[in-house]
Amino acid sequence: MKHATATPSILRDLRSLKVVVIHPQDQDGDELLAQLQRIGCEVTVFWPRLDCLPANTGLVLMAVRPETLSTTFPWMGNANSPPIIPVVTYENPITIEAVLQLNAFSTIPSPVRSFGLLTAIAVALTQFRASRMRDRYIERLEQKQAKLRVIQQAKQIVMDTRGVSEEEAYQMLRSQAMLKREQIEILAGEIVKARETLSF
Amino acid sequence: MTSEDTRGLPESIKIGVLYSRSGVTSAAETTQLQATILAVEEINRAGGVLGREMELVCLDPQCQPGNYADLAEQLILKHRVHLIAGCYMSSTRKAVIPIVERHNALLFYATPYEGFEYSRNVIYTGAAPNQNTLPLAGFMLTHFGSRVSMIGSDYVCPYESNRVMSDLILERGGEKADETYLPLDARWESYLDVARRIKQLAPDFIFSTVVGEGIPHLYRAFAHVGLDPYRMPIASHMTSEAEVAIMGADLAEGHITSATYFQSIETPANRLAVARYQARFGEDQTTNMCWEAAYFQMHLLAQAIRSVGSDDPTLLLRVLPGLEYDAPQGRVRIDEHNNHTYLHPLIARVDSLGHFDVIGRAPERVKADPYVVSHTTPRWTLKAQADVERTGDRQ
């Protein structure tokens, strides 16, 4: 560390972060709530059920206990559900399995201490965002990969039918696409489809 | 109070004290030690607490974090103490926290620090960044400009203060001209190099987070290269009367400090406390922000002990949050939720006699917000009481 850097945006946004806490009101619950309020987050507490997540929830802290193991949360696991930080009281295999199911990036051990919560939140939010971005990137790569495959197939068809080189086949596809004002992968798709239609 | 014969008297209430009498930050810590002694003597003279005397067990950690941890444990296990006043640099507080938490003891911490902490076993009576760095940043960026050179001691607190300052500079479209960190034991030549570079860069002001023995070096180097504090002051939230006393008024004049207490402030409580302090420890003694927090926190503790009728930390923690006291700086209050203290932020400039002349003050006491990340500049720093002088006697 040589210079003071600009504050990470994750930390800057904490005061507008809406946090849902699914935790019974006990010593751990009180400590969690008090520390979240010191940090300055907007907190709502539910227990034990929460069927519908409040709008714009940015983070969920959830007690993973025998009671929650049997509860289903309908909002969980869909594409827009926020990251979850489990509050863990047991370390037996069943509880750990439940924690793993939550795709957590950090955990809070019980008994809850004020120290460590801020770091756990920062890690969870950062890794969650990074993971979302990776998912989107992979999705885009897969789409691109599919396009390349179709273009490759179309190129092969042109090479076979016209007896031209790979480079010439590609140039032909490209100029046809430009002429028809279509994207090259659309034209390639039509060629591949036409060939499939003809091959009976 | 120390080793007098106490047979036949009710057992005293022991308070452990961890302030260093030698080492890099011992100048300020020695004043904290003496403030603690003064407060406890006052309390005992007024009849003590619960009919018992308060007795200090003072150990000297010599500014080494490891010593603070060992001596805290020694206080608890050997001296049967569970109330401790002390620590200065964050590294020393971080070393003691696990120990007071493990033994359910209570630490009273009287030094400004970088925030982002809450332990139920610590009462924080020094300023959080929103009570000193933030007002200083607002004031300096408004009155001097937003091209800033930063110099600090190489440990956690300066980096955090500079993060706050950097954010505010960038928000205003300003610029960091320079950012340097020197080791805590850096020699004066290193400060001279920095001062020469700053002179060439000609920033609007210098933000210093240097602590301890480095402070006189910095101000001396600044004067040595011929910089004018009235045009380009060093602004600090750590340079206090303790350091000005060491470097002398001629080096300190014109520079600016943000703190929640200065010796010069005119409250009846301050005038009386300073008079008693000088009568006890010598007319030449000065007070400072760390002295004041160390002083009033003992009175808050005595008040809490009286209120619950016990010196048990768990019981004390039920009454300390929310407790108020007429401290030398004005009425302070321990926050109900974060164990930090509502304090009165001030901006002052050193005059030709070495006194801090207050040139800006918060209209009311300010709640400590140790976890605030995004700072907004307090409004009172944006308009000064009077124009800030850009020239002084010292030319």
Question: Summarize this, please?
Answer:
The complex is a heterodimer of chains A (200) and B (395). Chain A is of the alpha/beta class and 200 residues long.
Itemize the secondary structure elements and their pairings.
The complex is a heterodimer of chains A (200) and B (395).
Chain A lengths: L8 H4 L5 E5 L4 H13 L2 E5 L12 E6 L1 H4 L14 E5 L4 H9 L6 E2 L7 H46 L3 H14 L4 H15 L2
Parallel strand pairs in A: 1-2, 1-3, 3-4, 4-5
Helix pairs in contact in A: 5-6, 5-7, 6-7
Chain B lengths: L12 E6 L7 H20 L8 E6 L5 H13 L5 E4 L3 H13 L3 E4 L12 E3 L8 H11 L3 E7 L2 H16 L3 E8 L5 H14 L3 E5 L4 H11 L9 E3 L4 H7 L1 H4 L3 E4 L8 H14 L7 H20 L4 H7 L4 E4 L2 E5 L6 E2 L3 E5 L5 E6 L34
Parallel strand pairs in B: 1-2, 1-3, 3-4, 4-5, 6-7, 6-8, 8-9, 9-10
Antiparallel strand pairs in B: 10-14, 11-12, 12-13, 14-15
Helix pairs in contact in B: 1-11, 2-3, 4-5, 6-7, 7-8, 11-12
**Would you list the SSEs of chain B in sequence order as H and E?**
EHEHEHEEHEHEHEHEHHEHHHEEEEE
At the first level of CATH, what is the class of the largest domain in chain A?
Answer: Alpha Beta
Whole-number count of domains of chain A:
2
Radius of gyration of chain B: 21 Å
The strand count of chain A comes to 5
Number of domains of chain B: 2
Task: Note the main sheet of chain A.
Answer: 5 strands, parallel
Return the string of H and E elements of chain A. Answer: HEHEEHEHEHHH
Report what the structure shows.
The complex is a heterodimer of chains A (200) and B (395). Chain A has 200 residues and is of the alpha/beta class. Chain A has helices at 9-12, 27-39, 66-69, 93-101, 117-162, 166-179, 184-198; strands at 18-22, 42-46, 59-64, 84-88, 108-109. A 5-stranded parallel sheet of chain A has the order 2-1-3-4-5. The N and C termini of chain A lie far apart (68 Å). Chain B folds into 2 domains: 13-127 and 266-342, Rossmann fold (3-Layer(aba) Sandwich), CATH 3.40.50.2300; 130-263 and 345-381, Response regulator (Rossmann fold), CATH 3.40.50.2300. Chain B contains 12 helices and 15 strands. In chain B, the strands form 3 sheets. Chain B has a 7-stranded mixed sheet, with helices on both faces. A 5-stranded parallel sheet of chain B has the order 2-1-3-4-5, with helices on both faces. Chain B has a 3-stranded antiparallel sheet with strand order 11-12-13, with helices on one face. In chain B, strand 1 (13-18), helix 1 and strand 2 (54-59) form a beta-alpha-beta unit. In chain B, helix 4 crosses helix 5 and helix 6 (188-201) packs across helix 7.
